[in-house]
Amino acid sequence: SFDTTKDVPSLTGKVIMITGASTGIGFETVKNLLRGSPAHIYFAGRNRSKHEAAIASLRELFPSTSTKLSFLECDLESLSSVQAAAKSFIMQSSAQPESESNRLDILICNAGVHGAPDGQTADGYEVRWGVNYMSHALLIKYLMPIMLQTAQRSGVEAEVRCVLVSSAGFRFTVSDGIDFKSQYLKYGQSKLATILLTRKLNEQHPSVKTVAVHPGIVGTGMNLGLGKAEVMFMKVSGWMNGYPWLTPEQGAVNQTWAAVGKKENVIGGEYFEKPGEVGKPTKWSKSEQLQKELWEWTEEEL
């Protein structure tokens, strides 16, 4: 078990970035992380007013915190916006005091869409695939060098980590695992791709521990657009499969643990359904061939 009120260690001096933290699980995750007093948390998101309201709320909840809280404009429906956000962070990071300069200790790819209306991103990807997978893959690609640099620094007590939010929904996909041309079942495909990307990144960059997590079935803004019948189906099917409906506070536990839990318990390259509990894989989530195909396709696209 992991108690977010007691088990968050000191994060003194650490720099964190999280996507989609204005509300819901992301907001609750930041609340948890603030208990460790990191040096700086960057909120990467599209809506400035919502994120600034969230930051103001957090400052009221933690009036004595010394942690800097900054908004970083990043529209995950646009790869050019993601690229600009990464470059902006790198520029801002280089201008920070020496202890924070050119540093990123924890990246949490939290933002996602599920019940959004059907549509495409600015780059022509199905919106769930584009937001949940493609944009985070690009963000990681641009930020990995600074994370590797952070990992090489002496005196970094806890390892550098990259946490990707997947879902038990990765099991609901097409018969081939991932169909790069189809628009069908893209939510499940995006979450399967996230797990495969996690494994590949951990193999390629072992000094940055990359893990994937299932937050649980949570009633958040990510599910806006789902009808009452669909929400009821999620609740019932989740309950039948051992996934009860959670609050955002409960949903934030797993990714908080993945970000700051004890290094011997957080295993790189794995997908965790609960703190310390590795999720049961499927044929496709453990497929070396599909992982290779996805990586090559992603590199070509980005």
UniProtKB/TrEMBL annotation:
Record has Ubl conjugation as a keyword: no
SUPFAM superfamilies: NAD(P)-binding Rossmann-fold domains
GO molecular function: oxidoreductase activity
Xref: Pfam families: adh_short (PF00106)
Gene3D superfamilies: NAD(P)-binding Rossmann-like Domain
Keywords from the named record: Oxidoreductase
Domain of life according to the entry: Eukaryota
PANTHER family (UniProt xref): OXIDOREDUCTASE, SHORT-CHAIN DEHYDROGENASE_REDUCTASE FAMILY (AFU_ORTHOLOGUE AFUA_2G04560) (PTHR24320:SF154), RETINOL DEHYDROGENASE (PTHR24320)
Family: Belongs to the short-chain dehydrogenases/reductases (SDR) family.
Protein's name according to its UniProt entry: NAD(P)-binding protein
Source species: Rhizodiscina lignyota
